[in-house]
Amino acid sequence: MTFKQTKLVLGIATLAMGAALVSPQAMAHKSSKKHHHASQPSYSKVDLLESQVRAMQDEIASLRTQQASAAPVVAVDTAKVEELDQWMASVKAAPVIEKTKDNMMFFRGGYGHSNATRGGTLDPTTIPGVGSSINGLGNGRMADKDAWYAGAGFDFSLNNNLFGLMDNTEVLAELMFDYKQYAQGSNNGISGGVAGAANVGVRGLAPLTVNNQAATVSQFTLAASPKIKFMKGSAFRPWLIPVGLEVNVISPPSNAITVLNPGMQFGLGADYKIWKDLYVGADARYHQSMGSTDGVRINGVTAGGYLGIGF
User: Fold this and answer.
1) Strand partners, 238
2) Phi, psi at residue 168, to the nearest 5°?
3) Could you give the 3-state DSSP secondary structure of residue 220?
4) 3-class secondary-structure state, position 76
5) Terminus-to-terminus CA distance in the chain, angstroms?
6) Around 191, how many Cα atoms within 13 Å sit in the side-chain half-sphere?
7) Cβ-contact 159, 170 below 8 angstroms
8) Which residue, among 261, 264, 307, has the nearest Cα to 283 in the 3D structure?
9) Is 177 exposed, middle or buried (0-12, 13-18, 19+ CB in 10 A)?
10) What's phi and psi for 118, nearest 5 deg?
């Protein structure tokens, strides 16, 4: 109870006691007419008390009206406080996801294997009308199919939920290049057998000489691929490449001096966050050419590891 309300109650009690004291005088005045001139002051006191009671009643009604008008404000404030408490509780209950840098630069290397052997440039790997190189005619194919490779690339984050289809599944665009070296091949030019056969009976022309320079069988690959990476927010994250486009530069060129060979790649792998934005990973990829480039096919696999840096 407020101070003002306490004061009002005390006033009402005082008026009630005054009214009780005045009432006998009023009754005595009604019973005796000869004392009429002496009871006139009592009527004044009764009227005064009545007016004071009415004033107090009006003040009580005013207080009640003020309290009724203030009640909705209190209710609104209470609703806001409850809403804020609910929001704080939901924030505290939500799992804590460590923010990471979604893009990555990586350096990779490992083992490669070609499904087919490769040939030289000037000296054909097959002799027209004869077939395969025999009796020293033609250099023949470079038989080594195994290779090592080294390269680098970038992952650029595009979406965090597979375009709304799967939570915590990131879509990235990978741009990658690598260099493969298969073998130190055989002579890349005119073989001794072909030169000897061509020089028989030739007069007035410089004789053909044998090219003893060996060719290094190598390949440069530039690829762009979509990459789907799972378990966003986790230290261990597997990924796959459904299909990507690649352009290969072959060396030595084909017998028709063609160096470019387009193809596709498919891959899968995983990486692990070892410290801050530093990652290690492993991957395997299969490379499929669109077709034979003047007799040269580049189909094969690569498998190895990589070191990634988030940015």
Assistant:
1) 270
2) 55, 30
3) strand
4) helix
5) 65
6) 21
7) yes
8) 307
9) middle
10) -120, 155
- The CATH code of domain 104-310 reads 2.40.160.20
Per-residue model confidence (pLDDT) at position 210: 52
What token pair was written down for 33?
């007419």
Pairing of strands 146-159, 126-127: unpaired
Instruction: Tell me what pLDDT residue 37 has.
Output: 46
Q: What is the pLDDT of residues 105-120, one digit of tens each?
A: 999 999 999 998 776 5
At 25, list the tokens.
């005088």
Please spell the DSSP secondary structure of 29-63, one letter per residue: HHH-GGGTTTSHHHHHHHHHHHHHHHHHHHHHHHH
Q: State the pLDDT at residue 307.
A: 98
Closest CA to 157 of 75, 226, 84: 226
What are 232-243's pLDDT values in tens digits? Answer: 999 999 999 999
Beta strand extents in the chain (DSSP E only)? 104-114, 126-127, 131-132, 146-159, 170-187, 214-229, 236-251, 260-275, 278-289, 300-310
Tens of pLDDT, residues 39-63? 454 557 767 777 877 887 788 777 7
User: Is-contact 49 19, C-beta < 8 A?
Assistant: yes
Peptide bond into 253 cis (omega under 30): no
Low-confidence ranges of the chain (pLDDT < 50): 22, 25-39, 41, 122-124, 127, 130-137, 205
